[in-house]
Amino acid sequence: MKRLLVAAFAALMAAASPAHAVLKIDVTGGVVQPVPVAVPAFPGTAEVATPAGSTGELGQQIAKVISANLERSGLFRPIDPRAFTTRVTPADASAPQFAAWRTVAAQALVTGYVQPNPDGSLLVACYVYDVFGEEEMGRTGFTARNPRDWRRTAHKCSDFVYEKITGEKGYFDSRVVYVSESGPKTNRIKRLAIMDQDGENHRFLTSGQSMALTPRFSPSQQQIAYLSYFQNKPRVFLYDLNSGRQEVIGDFQGMSFAPRFSPDGNSVLLSLSRGGNTNIYVMDLRTRRLRQLTNSPSINTSPSYSPDGSKIVFESDRGGTQQLYVMNADGSGAQRISFDTRNKRSRYATPVWSPRGDYIAFTKMDEGKFRIGVMRPDGSGERVLTDAWQDEGPTWSPNGRVVIFFRTDRYGRGGTGGGSKIWSVDLTGQNERPIGTPLDASDPAWGPLLP
Prior knowledge:
This protein has helices spanning 10-14, 55-72, 90-94, 98-102, 150-166, and strands spanning 5-6, 35-38, 49-50, 53-54, 76-78, 108-116, 122-130, 135-144, 175-182, 189-196, 203-204, 211-217, 223-230, 233-240, 246-251, 255-261, 267-274, 277-284, 289-292, 300-305, 311-316, 323-328, 335-336, 347-353, 360-366, 369-375, 383-384, 391-396, 402-408, 420-426, 432-435, 440-446.
């Protein structure tokens, strides 16, 4: 995919003026009532055929993707286009008929247009309005150098709308890597796959000849670290998504989990079993030198950095049961943070720090279930977000407001033997949705916003 650039075009931005709209969603206040939003088809400034379809067809598809993104966030309720009483022209995009949109009870309006450029690229303008306040909340535009990359313009417009109405960054222009599974339980084929956050543009990254496990996205680059077994020998690979190049960063006997990157992407945390104990190490990717961080006669694994790199959360059975601990980045000062006073037999695993730094997501095991939960870094405010039979492996959206995970069906339904699929849930625990994959899916990792 060619790089998508934010377009700096004078005609669109010259008319923009500061807006002080009343419309606002407070995403920190718990469950909110979804805002009714109208997203009419983006008209073409000229009906021109492109390699991805005509500008009119692309404008309809772009509006559908924006509507779907906003609806899945749980914060917006797109209005059925069949209720619209007016059609949008390129001129209406910058001067909407607010009265017409009030008749369908739209509180927010997202419009735009699709313009073909002489060099073959595609310009997509994006506007967002407060309908009842009759105010423009913002406008911008995006250029797809290759028209086939039109979906990214829709995701970027979705992010723009999300930010203008919530005040926080969006997460739609991002990708998810995961382990695709097929075959019988006794002989599973596990290969890496990647897709857009909405499940589109799916493709496989590895062939399945060697088992691929536990992929982890770099927070600073389009790179993935993952564990692969070839002839029963574990090796850690670094996969560059821009070039398709792979390199082995280490052969580790006793490897328990794939590495997780530091916030700057220059080092990785990993756990190794040596001498009967499993401890956490950090590897400098530039020098490939390992440094041991924990040293206890127990299992210490699944480490994850805080966003500023000063702390590490991990799981350990050093206290007799599987619990969560936070320590300094140099391995000092480890403190237990998981305490379920209601059920002292509860166990916690797979912790991952939110990119916002305010929560740690985890897998909680009790009452015969695996569930996804969050807690603050000091262990307070624990909340369980899901309540299925086996949910595990949480990973955060780039803005720290949504968690995706994989769910295994108790009866093996919905897949080829394992029945595991990827789901998402927001921090309220109320907005839970499946993300479609061609085969069974496990161990997702959500990447950063695309450049």
